[in-house]
Amino acid sequence: MAVVKAGAYGHGLEEIAKALASEAVEFLGVANIGEARRIREADVESRVYLLGATWEDEREEIVARNITPCISTVEEGIAFNNIAGRRGVKLPVHIAVDTGMGRGGFLPNGIEANVALLEDLQNLNIEGIASHLSSADEDEGFTRLQIASFEETVRRLGGSDRFRWRHLSNSSGILGYPQGCCNLARPGLMLYGVSPLPGHQEKLDNVMTLKSRVTLVRSVPAGHCISYGRSFVTTKPTKIATIGIGYGDGYPRQVSGKAANAFIRGKRHPIVGRVTMDQLVVALPDDTDVKSGDEVELFGSNIPVAEVAALANTIVWDVFTGITPRVQRIHLRTSPK
Q1: Residue 332 lies inside a defined structural domain of this protein
Q2: pLDDT of the residue at 78
Q3: Which of 165, 195, 225 is the endpoint of a domain?
Q4: Which of 107, 268, 295, 302 could form a disulfide bond with 261, CB atoms 3.0-4.6 angstroms apart?
Q5: End-to-end CA distance of the chain
Q6: What are phi and psi of 50, to 5 degrees?
Q7: Residues sharing a CB contact under 8 Å with residue 56, sequence separation 6 or more, in sequence order
Q8: 8 A C-beta contact, residue 263 and residue 290
Q9: Is 202 contained in some domain?
Q10: Are residues 75 and 149 in the same domain?
């Protein structure tokens, strides 16, 4: 199950969904019906799975578009059963189990009675069971408890004989833990070339490169302030380049003053002064050959996005999904290493 929620982690929902569909993934995982609708309207026929709970006004469309929901309560199941019955279809659903994430799902204790009630609903096909790891990139002990809880729950409910699909692992779970009873996994971040666990990055290829261009190259004297707030003042005559990107495009303002770099003409150059909404400034060496129009990498194969996230005191997921709509997405197919 390829997770493509939040615009495929900022990479472009429709284009990424089409690329993944051509690789014959079993499901595309989304957060809400709006994302599912966009995939269907892009003529992607892969099965679409809703990773979270839904509310009553969304359920008619979910059934109409043959989207697979997860079920966290008997009441949800009854509502979907009634809609499916009116439409004369049998809706595939997965049971959600709360093994410690806390956002939804049946608690393992006493789940048998709830599943029995759901199985009595004639218009549902309970084809799968799922849970979600809350701390697989931070807490090994708790993660192993979650895995054990899920496996025991699946066993009590009938195991592989009962459920066609059994899924638990996100990217951290895939890279760091055995899959046990599961036969379906839900990679998210790792699909986009970034490992959430140390020691695995070499297995993955970078996917997104954030680029801009140099708009202006000029020289300023010593004692000249750069950008808002006068947080950077030159100590000597300095050649600088203005770059046409800022926090209005999703490049994090929080890296200001923290030794962030831009990559131009094969070299890193320090970003100086505050990142503004539409522009930032880099300092250049005196003998630079950088000129207006040159391509600039803000992160990608030369500057890891994890480095930018760390400087911004945030996570890679936040940086990826923060790239705003005004940034043009250009999608290229490349061969893996």
Answers
A1: no
A2: 98
A3: 195
A4: 268
A5: 23
A6: -90, 120
A7: 79
A8: no
A9: no
A10: yes
Q: What is the pLDDT of residue 244?
A: 98
Kindly report, residue by residue over 135-194, the tens digit of the pLDDT. Answer: 999 999 999 999 999 999 999 999 999 999 999 999 999 999 999 999 999 999 999 999
- Read off the CATH number of the domain in which 29 is found: 3.20.20.10
Task: Return the sign of the alpha-carbon dihedral for residues 254, 257, 262, 267.
Answer: negative
Q: Can you give the length of the chain in residues?
A: 337
Q: What is the pLDDT of residue 4?
A: 98
- The pLDDT of residue 24 is 84
Whether residue 227 is contained in a domain is answered as yes
Closest CA to 81 of 129, 125, 124, 126: 124
* Residue 277 pLDDT: 98
Low-confidence ranges of the chain (pLDDT < 70): 336-337
- The per-residue pLDDT for 336 is 65
pLDDT of residue 311: 98
Catalytic residue numbers read 5, 228
**Mind giving me the DSSP string for 202-264?**
GGS-----EEEEEEEEEEE-TT-EESGGG-EE-SS-EEEEEES--TTTT--GGGTTTT-EEEE
8 A C-beta contact, residue 153 and residue 96: no
Which residues, 6 or more positions from 175, have their beta carbon under 8 angstroms from its beta carbon? 190, 195, 196, 197, 200, 203
Same domain for 190 and 225, yes or no, is: no
pLDDT for 46 equals 95
Could you tell me if 271 and 282 are in contact, meaning their C-beta atoms sit under 8 angstroms apart?
Answer: yes
Q: At what angle do helices 111-119 and 74-87 cross, to 10 degrees?
A: 10
Please tell me whether residues 172 and 304 are part of one structural domain. no
Please tell me the predicted confidence (pLDDT) of residue 132: 97
